[in-house]
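Weekly structure sync - notes
Attendees: PM, LS, DV (DV joined late)
Agenda: review two folding runs queued last week.

Item 1: First target. Sequence and structure tokens pasted below for the record.
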Amino acid sequence: MAIETPDRIEPALLNDAPVDIMDAIAELAAKTAALGKALHPKTASNLADLVRIMNTYYSNLIEGHHTRPRDIERALSGQLDPDQKRRDLQLEAKAHVRVQAEVDRQFREGTLPDPTSSEFLRFLHHEFYRDAPESMLIIKAEDRQFVMQPGEWRSLPEHDVQVGQHLPPSSYRVPDFMRHFEIRYRQQELGPGSRILSIPAAHHRLNYIHPFPDGNGRVSRLMSHAMAHGAGIGAHGLWSISRGLARGIESRSEYKSMMDYADTPRMNDLDGRGNLSLRALKEFSLWFLRVCLDQVAFMSGLFEIEGLAERFKKYVAQSRKLKPELISLL
């Protein structure tokens, strides 16, 4: 029988992270700072709009929903497919873009709340599903069917679920688990490095609790995006964690296998003091951080900021009409 006390998600944090994890945190902080400073904020904001579409594409792909970027762009402009299935996928993608844009706006304006708070997580879920047709809110199981309420925790016996081999807490215990989650991951009580370190752990533990009947993966990825902003590694939204999770480092199946591995119960007396494996959390966290580093490196290379600056200089130098002062403006 599954443990029904909130301590079931412990260890929630890595209080004594190994050197390789600390090195990954330092490298991630440095590289995202360089990526964020390389562009004018308005230019970065425009590019972030494109990255947001990419983020949505890969987040959908993780869910097994293949919505092409051009279909997402059409949805954003109001051009919906007449086929209901494809139209629902477009609406789903449009909602993801809208919610992530709202998260980015709140961060820019300094109004982003704690990304791990129950209020914010319920906000993410509600905003994602607020305009969804009822067909997207119907949850079907072998012996039951119900309509999911946007922004509401699992609360009824029919909401109980099994995810693969994992049996999340019973629905009536979800509020207690989420209160514990909120306390353990409260960002204002963590230092800069600890905020980065908490992102992988919170990402897994939220999915482990599975607080909503559906949409937990999407909420966890949006939460991770918001946490990256709060930890100072968001770089104006110029990189996408969803792309990294969908592609992995060596295999597209890594995300699922690593999430499953992080579900591992404590193995022995040398494996921490919590219900779950401390070793598995360390390995999952390192993998997650390396995925982030891979995506930051990918986007830095894609923008080729340093190369672009040199091309601007050569362009102005070779022109007979442009003054040298224009280089700094460009």
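Item 2: Second target, run right after the first with the same settings.
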Amino acid sequence: MPQTHPSPTTAPPAPSTELSLEERLAFINTAMSMRLDEAAVAYQVNTAHIDTEPVDLRDVVTGPLDTGPAPLPDPYPTPVAALLQRAHHRLLTNGWCTGALVDEDGARCLYGAIRIEARGDSGLEASAAAVLLDAIRRTFGDTDSVPSFNDAHRTSHVPIRMLRQAASLADARGL
């Protein structure tokens, strides 16, 4: 009698369904993680023979050196230009502020820097402020005053640049 075996029943293959975006990204993430792990192992194997000494970070990472204030460049030969140049240098080294002639840290506004560098000479101070206001108006149009221009800025970049331009303007005028 021949033996009959039940024929194995195989399920028909499931219809292919397209993967969602999240599923595809999960597969790609897994594949990339595996490739990165393989690359890390290959790097370790390829560089294992290189003898290195540990690096002391204190030798590599250093703080800024306190070199003192920057030297004043050669002064302009004219008094108003030299005053504006000194005021420019003062703002660069001691800081710029807004809303006051001088703040609690010693930083000064444009007019405060001119006043301190004028050293009590009110005529020189007035001439320097006038040249600065003229330089500001040449670049920015109608401006009420040097203090209002100073207080209209949040950072020192433009006010300090205008002080440098005013020094150059005063020198060109022979002031």
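Discussion on item 2: The two ends are 128 Å apart (CA to CA).
Action: LS to circulate a short write-up before next sync.
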